[in-house]
What does this fold into?
Amino acid sequence: MVETIKEVVASKKDWLVEVRRYIHANPELSFHEEKTAAFVCEKLDEMGISYRTNIGGHGVVAEIGSGDRVIALRGDMDALPIQEENQVPYASKNTGVMHACGHDVHTTCMLGAAGVLKKMEAELNGVVRIIFQPAEEKIPGGASLMIADGVLKNPDVELIFGQHVFPDMEVGGVGFKSGMYMASADELYIHVEGKGGHAALPNKAIDPILIGSHLVVALQQMVSRKSRPDFPTVLTIGKFEGLGATNVIPKSVKMEGTLRAMNEEHRADLHHHITKLVTELCSSMGAVGHVEIRKGYPCLVNDDSLTNWAKEQAVDLLGAENVHDLPLRMTAEDFAYFAQEVPACFYRLGTSNKSKNIGAPLHTSTFDVDEDSLVIGTSLMSLLAIRQLA
It folds into this structure.
């Protein structure tokens, strides 16, 4: 089985590179993946694979095989609002838009796995549902919209696999983490209404700059005093806007930040504490505090048994020396919505290559991948699907 998959995928490498480079050169932002979805459909048509479109937006869902069991593979399609600086033939043609998070790789590996599974369809003891997902990068997240559109139903999906590029790991490797893996991500919008005035007469004003500064400190301290020590938590204020001047105390301050947590109950408690802290601290200093918490993606929890099983398959495919254990990450991923519905395994695909000077971080203008990772990502997804149904 392993050798057959390796041979099939190796024969498709040039095709995988061509597909990935086309997608990379033609990126589309979240909720605007119309041409990317059409390209995916074109490739599925060429392989004789049936599919449905417009699921949760521009989502595409293909199915291969037959039988009672249904498992799913997921790859996301959207890009980021970043101007690419790589000097490569396949650089983005769309000004200010770039595949800086590797979703071009994810989509390519899903198309590659679709081709492998179609070729080996007779060996499938069930159905593989391949989910080409839009809008991972923007709340509310395409995963939630596809779930609302029934992507895991009729018939029900039993379990799901997803992968993500990982420039911290050399190409050839993959990484796994069972249980808690990635954090929830909520956006904080805080407005402090004080009373403006002359900077030389602060006694006649209610200084929102001072009150906002107290809030930043108090919110940071809240993490250490209100957070459970067994659940990692991050609260960061990334924007502080007080439009006064050297001699002007402004009438209000606006602040924006993020809250990351590793447990849903703990996350809800923190929402309560943040709201109470902002309103009561501002009130105690004579101001009015408003806070809006926009709920983002939930915590991503990998199923223990499924993840450990997938890790064993990766060892069989790549060798133990190329399969690694991953630490917790405070970044977020809307694959977490799938993991809330069915047992899930979300793993990392090594994409860097120091000898080729490939290894820029995710979400940067010089991010790129070693395209050997396309072979590994396609092979592992194919193997996981076939063996899980077996």
The chain has a mean pLDDT of 97. Residues 206 and 286 are 7 Å apart (CA to CA). The chain has two domains: 2-181+299-389, 184-294.
